[in-house]
Write a structure and sequence with these properties.
- The protein has 194 residues and is mainly α.
- It is built from 9 helices and no strands.
C-alpha cells in the first residue's frame, strides 16, 4: 500500500532519477565539471595578471544550474525520505556542494558588480579568496562517481580491504632492500679495502 500512496508524478521522477541514462549523464557532467575547474585553475595560474574570461563564469553557472536541477528533482522524487534514506550521506554531500556553488556564484556576481562600479575593497578580495578555496568543494563531487560506477566502487572496496596486506608487503620489500643494501655495501667496502 505504500507504493500506492506515492503520487504518479513522484514515481515518474523516481524512475527518471534511477535510470541508467540519468546516472551516465550526471557522471559525465561531474567529470566534465572537474575538467573545467582544472582548466580554469591552470589558466588562472598561467595568466596571473589577466582577468579570467567570462566563458569560465558562464560554464560554472551552467554547471551550477544543472546540478541544482538534479538536486531539486531528487528532493521532489523522494520528499522527506531524501534526507533519511540509506544514501543520506550522498544526498547531504549534494546539498552542500550545490549550496556552495550557488554561494560562490552569488559572491562572484556581487564582486563583479562592485568591480564594475569601481568600489573593490580588501575585504571583498578576502571573500574572493575564500570563494576560490570553496571551489575545491565542487571537485569533491567527483567522489559521487563511486556511487554511479559499481566496478569503481568494488575496486575501491577491494583496495581498502587489501591495505593491511599491502602494508606488510611494503615492510617486507623494505626489509629485503635493507638487507641487500647492507650486503652490497659491505661487499663493495671489503673490495675497496683489499
Amino acid at each position: 500500500t505504500a507504493a500506492k500512496d506515492i503520487p504518479e508524478w513522484r514515481r515518474r521522477l523516481q524512475r527518471l532519477e534511477t535510470s541508467t541514462a540519468w546516472s551516465l549523464f550526471f557522471a559525465g557532467a561531474i567529470v566534465s565539471n572537474c575538467i573545467l575547474i582544472g582548466i580554469q585553475v591552470e589558466y588562472t595560474a598561467a595568466n596571473l595578471m589577466e582577468d579570467v574570461p567570462d566563458l569560465f563564469f558562464a560554464l560554472s553557472t551552467l554547471y551550477a544550474f544543472v546540478f541544482l536541477v538534479e538536486l531539486v528533482i531528487q528532493i521532489l522524487a523522494y520528499g522527506e525520505r531524501f534526507f533519511c534514506s540509506s544514501s543520506w550521506a550522498w544526498n547531504y554531500l549534494d546539498v552542500f556542494i550545490v549550496t556552495s556553488s550557488l554561494v560562490e556564484l552569488c559572491i562572484n556576481l556581487s564582486f563583479t558588480a562592485a568591480e564594475a562600479a569601481g568600489s573593490t575593497s580588501t575585504s571583498q578580495l578576502r571573500v574572493l579568496r575564500v570563494v576560490r578555496v570553496a571551489r575545491l568543494a565542487r571537485v569533491v563531487r567527483i567522489i559521487k562517481l563511486v556511487k554511479f560506477l559499481r566496478a569503481l566502487r568494488t575496486l575501491i572496496y577491494s583496495i581498502i580491504c587489501t591495505m593491511k596486506s599491502l602494508f606488510w608487503a611494503l615492510v617486507l620489500v623494505v626489509l629485503i632492500m635493507y638487507v641487500f643494501a647492507i650486503l652490497l655495501t659491505d661487499t663493495v667496502t671489503s673490495h675497496l679495502l683489499d
